[in-house]
């Protein structure tokens, strides 16, 4: 029965997909090499007792400095309750939250999406938890440290293929504290059950460490007439702590963790100087205290610097850069992580197209392993500002050791084993006297 329903949903989704292709032809026009590995689809196991109230797609995200949002989905309606504590199966605390669901076009209704914020929690501590009453599934997570060092896993354009699976296995072994994702998560591309499959695929990692994400073009899922509201599934399933940073949208927000101020931007929302996003970013940057957060990291999907032949000339890259690059430069942002191009590329410190010692290092990390394959053609000769570029799947690790130094490494998926292909030590701009500016706190 489930297969029949899935087939029907797929066929009903194919029409809007083709229709949408007419409108988004520019975005999907790049002709990538074929993918050599299988696309994964992860079914719901229902647990041992085939209980439709069994939690699935569990993932967590940081809220403020000492709380955690627990998100999960059930097929039947159950209370949004999380029990938690610091000893196995002994849940001293509990919290209640909210439940929602969404419809996509006329054919799809999501499961029950539960959302509970727990805390205050101690830093760098292992917590045990379970979702819903007597669910039979027990989980653990570790909170991030309150001080340096902290290690981030960084991966974009993840998708759900066997390459994705390799990437996730490598990340799982990295002993990371928090995952940062600069957009393009499930590659559901209008077919909503793929969002559920993605949730199940990432659950083993995303239920154990906070996954902080922003969105890409594959999250828009807007179809004229049929489904005109953008980001429906993304906003319902991947709620991020935007209110805490004064943002009015789940699509852009910021937070502090262990001395790093992290800003998530939206390539597919207005970004011109009169936009809400721009005004919010300006205000957010005005409040950064470099004594509390010596590092500033920005994530945005479409790259502002890119020497790959894929995705050149898109307005989300060129016009957003023209609008916002000055703000980032004035704030002395250290690193900008982007995705969209399915390859790895690291630039030197750069501003306004030229090498600049006080500009951010731009890194494209859109190589998580999605079904569209790699973008392997580059501009020739290599522009001077591009330091390292390679079209392979993989992930990055950003280990901020202290207020002044951080180690960036890029781990290529080399025949299924992680291989450090690029690494560089970075010094924070706040510790560089040559990059001090008037008004810096
Ligand atoms: Fe993309």
UniProtKB/TrEMBL annotation:
InterPro entries, alphabetized: Calcineurin-like_PHP, Metallo-depent_PP-like, MPP_PAP, PAPs-like, PAPs_C, PAPs_N, Purple_acid_Pase-like_N
Keyword Metal-binding in annotation: no
Keyword Signal attached: yes
E.C. number(s) listed in UniProt: 3.1.3.2
Top EC group: hydrolase
Domain Purple acid phosphatase C-terminal: 359-417
Designated name of the protein: Purple acid phosphatase
Biological source species: Juglans regia (English walnut)
């Amino acid at each position: 029965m489930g297969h029949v329903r899935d087939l029907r949903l797929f066929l009903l989704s194919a029409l809007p997909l083709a229709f949408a292709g007419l409108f988004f032809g520019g975005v999907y026009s790049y002709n990538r090499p074929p993918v050599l590995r299988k696309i994964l689809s992860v079914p719901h196991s229902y647990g041992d007792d085939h209980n439709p109230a069994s939690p699935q797609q569990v993932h967590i995200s940081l809220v403020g400095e000492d709380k955690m949002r627990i998100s999960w989905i059930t097929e039947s309606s159950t209370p949004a309750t999380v029990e938690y504590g610091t000893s196995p199966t002994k849940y001293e605390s509990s919290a209640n939250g909210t439940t929602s669901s969404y419809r996509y076009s006329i054919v799809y209704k999501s499961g029950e999406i539960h959302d509970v914020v727990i805390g205050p929690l101690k830093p760098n501590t292992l917590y045990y938890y379970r979702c819903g009453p007597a669910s039979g599934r027990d989980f653990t997570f570790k909170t991030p440290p309150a001080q340096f060092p902290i290690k981030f896993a960084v991966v974009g354009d993840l998708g759900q293929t066997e390459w994705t699976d390799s990437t996730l296995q490598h990340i799982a072994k990295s002993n990371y504290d928090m995952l940062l994702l600069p957009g393009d998560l499930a590659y559901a591309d209008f077919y909503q059950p793929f969002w559920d499959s993605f949730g199940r695929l990432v659950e083993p990692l995303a239920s154990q460490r906070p996954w902080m994400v922003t969105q890409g073009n594959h999250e828009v899922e807007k179809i004229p007439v049929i489904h005109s509201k953008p980001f429906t599934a993304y906003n319902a399933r991947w709620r991020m702590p935007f209110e805490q940073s004064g943002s009015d949208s789940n699509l852009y927000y910021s937070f502090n963790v262990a001395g790093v101020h992290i800003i998530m931007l939206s390539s597919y929302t207005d970004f011109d100087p009169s936009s809400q996003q721009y005004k919010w970013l300006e205000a957010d940057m005005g409040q950064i205290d470099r004594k509390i957060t010596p590092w500033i990291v920005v994530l945005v999907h479409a790259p502002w610097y890119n020497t790959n032949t894929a995705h050149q000339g898109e307005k989300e890259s060129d016009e957003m850069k023209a609008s916002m690059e000055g703000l980032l430069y004035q704030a002395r942002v250290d690193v900008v992580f982007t995705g969209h191009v399915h390859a790895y590329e690291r630039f030197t410190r750069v501003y306004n197209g030229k090498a600049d010692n006080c500009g951010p290092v731009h890194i494209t990390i859109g190589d998580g392993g999605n079904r569209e394959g790699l973008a392997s053609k580059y501009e020739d000769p290599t522009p001077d500002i591009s330091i390292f570029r390679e079209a392979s799947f993989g992930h990055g690790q950003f280990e901020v050791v202290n207020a002044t130094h951080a180690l960036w490494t890029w781990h290529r998926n080399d025949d299924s084993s992680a291989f450090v292909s690029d690494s560089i030590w970075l010094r924070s701009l706040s510790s560089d006297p040559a990059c001090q500016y008037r008004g810096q706190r």
